[in-house]
Design a protein that fits this description.
Structural class: alpha+beta
Order of helices and strands: EHHEEEEEEEH
CATH architecture: Roll
CATH topology: Thiol Ester Dehydrase, Chain A
Distance between the termini: 20 Å
Strand order of the largest sheet: 1-4-5-6-3
CATH superfamily: Hotdog Thioesterase
Largest sheet: 5 strands, antiparallel
Number of helices: 3
Strand content: 35-45%
Length: 142
């Protein structure tokens, strides 16, 4: 089992334009829900996309895995729980999406690598500013 360093929950409502012809959420829209969860988690850490750019970094997504368990449907109030499981060499987040009944609907994972904007180079460790913010959260949760 992965170690969880930090978690955050975000809620959303399934919109009509997220549905496919079978009246369930189209599979590609789950990546959008992951982004909702990822943004909430990064806000909690204090290193959102704006702060990344201000510190000279971008974090492109390099890998996504999604496991669909139950469909989400129109109007449903759902929640996504995002867990930070790696932060020193990459940002790796596990996601759990729960339907309105509280049932696990989707499990997913994303990986992002640090990219130095000024040097135009990928980096194989996360910037110190991000690592320190995560370590502060870990320390506060002890």
């Amino acid at each position: 089992m992965d170690k969880i360093y930090c978690s955050e929950t975000a809620e959303f409502q399934v919109a009509f334009f997220d549905l496919d012809p079978m009246n369930v959420v189209w599979h590609g829209n789950y990546v959008k829900y992951m982004e909702i969860g990822r943004c909430a988690l990064l806000d909690k850490i204090g290193y959102n996309y704006t702060k990344m750019v201000e510190s000279g970094y971008a974090f492109p997504v390099t890998d996504i895995k999604v496991r669909y368990l139950k469909p989400l449907t129109f109007g449903e109030h759902a929640k996504i729980v995002s867990h930070l499981i790696e932060y020193e060499n990459m940002i790796k987040i596990k996601y759990e999406i729960f339907n309105e009944k509280g049932e696990l609907a989707t499990k997913a994972e994303s990986t992002q690598m640090a990219f130095n904007i000024k040097k135009m180079e990928s980096e194989f460790t996360c910037p110190e500013v991000f690592v320190n913010k995560v370590r502060a959260i870990i320390e506060n949760n002890k």
